[in-house]
Design brief:
Elements: E1 2-7, E2 10-13, E3 18-26, E4 33-39, E5 46-52, E6 57-59, E7 67-72, E8 77-82, E9 91-101, E10 104-109, E11 113-118
Parallel strand pairs: 2-11
Antiparallel strand pairs: 1-3, 3-8, 4-5, 4-9, 5-6, 7-8, 9-10, 9-11
Length: about 120
């Protein structure tokens, strides 16, 4: 139903920056929220940042002040600007989108993009 394509991951030194992009395509009538999760080896997948259709944003405490989420509604694309990267930011980052589904909603996931921060 909804396909998500992520880009922008890679290897960066601590203190550096990366910008992730995620474009949604398919049968999309309305997007309720788009966001980013991350998962490090042996750990659960946790929310990094999210942005609603109304523009409200939320961030994990660990990235507040360093990361910024934004969107381009015309392109159904969400971005994650990551600054002052730390070793503990190393993880696979997953884009997600939530769309209406009956009386509720349905979430879809991208394939993930690796972010590795080195010393």
């Amino acid at each position: 139903q909804v396909q998500l394509v992520e880009s922008g991951g890679g290897l960066v030194q601590a203190g550096g920056s990366l910008r992730l992009s995620c474009a949604a395509s398919g049968s999309i009538s309305r997007i309720l929220v788009m966001g980013w999760y991350r998962q490090a080896p042996g750990k659960q997948r946790d929310l990094v940042a999210a942005i609603t259709s109304g523009g409200s944003t939320s961030y994990a405490d660990s990235v507040k002040g360093r990361f910024a989420i934004s969107r381009d509604n015309a392109k159904n694309t969400v971005y994650l600007q990551m600054n002052s990267l730390k070793l503990e930011d190393t993880a696979v980052y997953y884009c997600t989108v939530r769309v209406p589904n009956g009386l509720g909603s349905l979430g879809s996931w991208g394939q993930g993009t690796q972010v590795t921060v080195s010393s």
